[in-house]
Amino acid sequence: MARNTQVAADHAAPPITQILAGFVATHPSRGWSNAVEHEAQRTFLNWAGCAVGAATHEAMRAALAAVQVLQPTAQASVLGRREQVDIASAALLNGISSHTFDFDDTHLLTIIHPAGPVASAALALAEHLDASGRALIDALVLGIDVSCRIGNLMYPEHYDRGWHITGSTGSLGAAAACARLLGLDTHATAMALGIAASQPVGLREQFGTMTKPFHPGAAARAGLTSALLAQHGFTASTRALEAPRGYAQTVSTKCAWHEATDELGERFEISFNTYKPFACGIVIHPVIDASVQLREQGVRAEDIQRIELRVHSLVLELTGKQEPANGLEAKFSVYHGCAAGLIFGRAGEPQFADEIVTRDDVVALRRKVTATVDDSIDEAAAHVSATLADGRRVQVVVEHAIGSLKRPMSDAALEAKFSDQAEPVLGADRTAQLIAACRGIADLPSVRALAALARPAAG
Amino acid sequence: MARNTQVAADHAAPPITQILAGFVATHPSRGWSNAVEHEAQRTFLNWAGCAVGAATHEAMRAALAAVQVLQPTAQASVLGRREQVDIASAALLNGISSHTFDFDDTHLLTIIHPAGPVASAALALAEHLDASGRALIDALVLGIDVSCRIGNLMYPEHYDRGWHITGSTGSLGAAAACARLLGLDTHATAMALGIAASQPVGLREQFGTMTKPFHPGAAARAGLTSALLAQHGFTASTRALEAPRGYAQTVSTKCAWHEATDELGERFEISFNTYKPFACGIVIHPVIDASVQLREQGVRAEDIQRIELRVHSLVLELTGKQEPANGLEAKFSVYHGCAAGLIFGRAGEPQFADEIVTRDDVVALRRKVTATVDDSIDEAAAHVSATLADGRRVQVVVEHAIGSLKRPMSDAALEAKFSDQAEPVLGADRTAQLIAACRGIADLPSVRALAALARPAAG
């Protein structure tokens, strides 16, 4: 019985609310390796590019219009837009935009997209507080540590149950980050986590609708509000995370408590963050990666007679659409991914535009692609071989796609991804300046300068 | 296995998101009996009194201070205060205050406190829209119907799992009420319910902290925001409530779908709403009721030699504190409840003040009370007998306490409860005017007049 399981689980539950609160409140600034620090910059850069990139999307237009009914004060920036809103609404809106293209970051152990809730809340509050870049990055590392550790202790049962784990753990990460920025002590930080624990956000049923990116946004807003409430003396249970009728046991049947505290302050979950190089489901990435490599080896689309893919059955099950009619369908077509990689050498959001998906040369190349199932090949791998008009055959085998933990995106590739997204919104000059600001964020005396760069010029 | 149960349950799931959305969007104004209409007025009056009463509580001070960091525009009223805030924050704050004393209303089948989320969201939005009282009452009836029907289909498993059902169903009720006020069509109303479905609020672990009353407040804010998003074209799953990874199957193992739709538009859940006559746990109510009746029969505290209670074992298990040291402990003391009923003839929030709980005559009478367990007596009943100094013995047996469905509070008693709470905040004159406005709410051309009466005079 569920009730017995809960009680049994609780007997083993350490006081993780207090432990995590103490960690967030007292861990020293930059108390981690250079590698962790570097990953924090990359996480922030990648998040900011995604938020800027989707700033003019229909979901953002709708959300901004709704928020403006509240007549918000101009306290904080909406990345990629000229409007300013109150900090809670800025957290909401930046959380929505950064996840709109499903192109942000992934903590692979839990499939949490950690920056959306945490960075969105932290930047809005930091901008209002006129905090330093150092303080923001500290908040980002600690906030992501909290949400991913809570994810670790519940995954996969919590996700299987139906929760969109990015939003359901995100309010905790956002609360932790904001508590840190506000300088709350351990007790007040525990209150912030406690208030946030009552606000898990997100159902998997929403995938494919605007409410999916709403999840990290609403989690960001909930976490930020929770920290403000705690700062002003609002109270919550001191055992909100671990108690029998607390957060974890209410939203998950798995509660591996040790995940919350193992190597706390030594191992940082942001080290395991990855960034999507391609704007589509992760299962197509190995094929696109191989196709880009073929192109880099000199294979030209016009010389191709046929292309043969060998992939795990899951790839075709999820992305076997042979004749996608538009951009959305193309995200579920391994055939389109292959053609895009060969023709453009990339597969960002622009390469999934409707007019690209239906362009003659793209359609023609796509029709030359055949796929064979081979379950001896790993789900994360792909074999791609091109037969050319002159009879030559060129093959690329990808064991770990670019963007995986084994083959992380280079800093240059991350900047190229950022530019792809930001240039249409901000222009090339401002995009370059914003990249530089994100790169040097830890040394910025005020994050306001960075936020200002993410605002398009007038007109 | 949980996963199999979910799939099995889904096969039987009718499209309740669409059905409820159509009901909320198209049911005619005042399409119910006079009894339902009367209960709607009572629900609103009782809610407003609770919100005004707690307007100066510490939880409200903290919440208001946190919200004011966002520098909200003065769009809507906070009942019992002079501050005005944006409508989403007004929904949050009125939701918090109305549940702070745990003295509001109860839908007994689900122990949902329905007005907190629904009325708080509806009044804030109605005030902003300059809506009529008729529109507000329609929204209240329909919103409460949605949250309580969703509660019916999941109770008790959902509550047992750890959810504070008032908040976890409240965002749906608030979304329905606000969608109705905005005049959304069936599709947009379904989107509002869908967005709200991703935001269940509330853990039972928070009971005893300020986060408990935060739950209806956060649910009110979530529902209101969801309706605004839907109005501006934001999308959600059309099957957000009933899909396998939708709301009900994610937060509950019981999904009795028919509860959502049985007699929809014929039976209204607000008919089953009850109001707490006494500001403490419901299990003490029969004893207080009996004690008040003894007083009304002429029994005077100073003549009492001893009092004997015969109650179900649950009463002493939950409220057996013999020497409460303060107001909070007194809420868990059936002995104090008995003494308060005999001395004051009532047991509102003032009768649980620290200085009352420790007053000599109250302590002296409390010590004359003994309690005996008798499990042949119903949990909702009590036998109270007083032995007087002259040797006489007077007994009162209560089978159904005042405030239960069998013995509802009279309109006069509801007004007295309102006055008890509102007069210390608004003064007697304004309180009387506000009661009259709540009584005549369905005929008010604008709810703004009512909201203005709930604002204390300057100084």
From TrEMBL, chains A, B:
Domain MmgE/PrpD N-terminal: 19-255
InterPro entries: MmgE/PrpD_sf, MmgE/PrpD_sf_1, MmgE/PrpD_sf_2, MmgE_PrpD, MmgE_PrpD_C, MmgE_PrpD_N
Record family assignment: Belongs to the PrpD family.
Domain of life (superkingdom): Bacteria
PANTHER family given in the database record: 2-METHYLCITRATE DEHYDRATASE (PTHR16943:SF8), 2-METHYLCITRATE DEHYDRATASE-RELATED (PTHR16943)
Protein name in the entry: MmgE/PrpD family protein
Domain annotation MmgE/PrpD C-terminal: ranges: 278-437
